[in-house]
Amino acid sequence: MAAAIQAIKRKRPREDDRIVEELPLPKKKRKLAEEDACQNRHEATEKKPRLSTEAFGEDCEISYDQLHEFLQYATLGRGQNAAKPRWCRIHHQRRLSGLVVVVLHELSQLHFYRFYTQFKHLRKTFRHRFSLPPLSGFTEARWGAGVKENPPLSREELKKDPVIQKYGEERRGLSGYILTPEEMRRYNYPLEGSSDCSHFVSICHNVPPSNDSPLFGLDCEMCITDKGSELTRISVVDASGQCVMDELVKPSSPIRNYLTRYSGITEKLLRSVKTRLADVQARLKSLLPPDAVLVGHSLNFDLRALEMIHPNVIDTSLLFTRKGGKRFRLKFLAEAVLRKEIQCTDQEGHEPTEDATCALQLAQFFMSQGPKKVAELNLEARWLEQNQAGGSKKPTLSKLKNGIPKQARTPVQRLLDALPSLSQKRLLLGGQSDTSPDSNQHKQILQQALEEIPGSSLSVVQVPSDPRHLNPHLAGHLRAKLRTKLEDMLTVYAGPFRKGLCLKALRRTFENYGHIRSISVVTETLKPHIRVQYEVLEAAELAIENLNGAEVAGSSIKVQRPITEMTLDWETLLRQLETDADNEGVIYVAGLEETHREADWREQLGFLKDLKATFRPRDPRSGRERNYCFLKFPTVGSASVALRTIRGQAARGGKLHSRGAVTPPHLHRWLYHENQNGGCPATPQLLCEAGRQPKEQLFALEQDLKGAMKGCDRWIRKLYRGLPNHMLCLVLLPGTDRASGSLPGFCLLAVKDNSNGPAPASH
Question: Which of 33, 346, 652, 724 has its CA 20 to 30 A from that of 504?
Answer without folding.
Answer: 652
